[in-house]
Amino acid sequence: MPHFMEKSVRENDYVLLICTPKYKQKSDNRIGGVGYEGDIMTAEVLQNSNNRKFIPVLQSGDKDLSIPSWLKGKYFIDLSSDSHFEKNFEDLITTVLNAREVAPLIGQIPSRFQQQVSINATSTLIQNDDTIKIKGIVVDEVTLPINDGTRGSALYKIPFELNKRPSYEWIELFINSFNRPPEFTQMHRPGIASVSGNKIYLNGTTIEEVERYHKKTLKLAVEVANKTLSEIQIRKRAKEEQDKSLKEQHKKNIDDIIKRINFDD
Q: Which end of the chain, N or C, is less packed with Cβ atoms under 10 Å?
């Protein structure tokens, strides 16, 4: 049994700790198998600085009664209530199954096809649904607070997985909307949002603030960015169609006049 526990902790990508008041009691007091597992896991954290693989899952009680002391301050998944089970479970699945966007391999495009590929890519961009959505929190990338007593040391960084990588234009619209949202509370923190790859980061907050305040602002900022970008693209396509029509009309007018011009007269 000890060998099995050591091997499981060492070789798996993630270890889920199903936390209950009884589990905390055994872990904190190093009782039985739970206590031995606690020794193995704390050793893993100390030796390899790998605390991302250990994900507390709150099954019953609350964080103070059920989360072991050595995991204090770490982000946990709360599955103790039906009211938020589905959303929090989605965060867990996003992390454990690594359901994250992966960039495709890029090969060399032969020069004779480059122009055609560029045209097709533009056409695909217009036809595809460009709506950006938040999939969930990336659990293993939530950082730990410093908690050294200095101002802001209890705050940390929280990443949110998006359904795909947004454009630079969308990112700018989102950041502007988050910093100056149409609606906000006194707890709003402008300047903490950033986007990298297919993740939004809130750097300088807590999960409690996200639940109470920032979640609504995040959703609103994403909606505003999606709507504004869609309107920009519609106007851009309309302008392109207008310019194309004017060019075609101009060319036709030139062709008609050229046909009427006869230098033999």
A: C
Distance of CA 89 to the CA centre of its chain: 15
Per-residue pLDDT of the chain (265 residues; tens, 9 = 90+): 878 888 888 788 888 999 999 999 998 888 888 888 888 888 777 776 666 788 889 998 888 898 888 887 777 888 988 877 887 888 888 778 766 555 556 666 666 555 554 445 444 443 446 789 999 999 888 998 888 889 889 999 999 999 999 988 899 999 999 998 887 777 888 899 999 889 999 999 999 999 888 999 999 999 999 999 999 888 888 888 888 888 988 988 898 888 888 877 6
- Residues near 81 by Cβ (< 8 Å), separated by ≥ 6? none
18 pairs with which residues across the strands?
57
The reply to whether 58 and 92 lie within a common domain is yes
207 and 142 in contact (C-beta within 8 Å)?
A: yes
Same domain, 88 and 134: no
Q: Tell me if residue 145 falls in helix, strand or coil.
A: coil
Q: What is the DSSP letter of 108?
A: P
Contact assessment for residue 10 and residue 53, using Cβ atoms and an 8 Å cutoff: no
Same structural domain for residues 137 and 49?
A: no
Phi and psi for 54 in degrees, rounded to 5? -100, 115
Q: Is 104 within the bounds of a domain?
A: no
Instruction: Report if pTM > 0.85.
Output: no
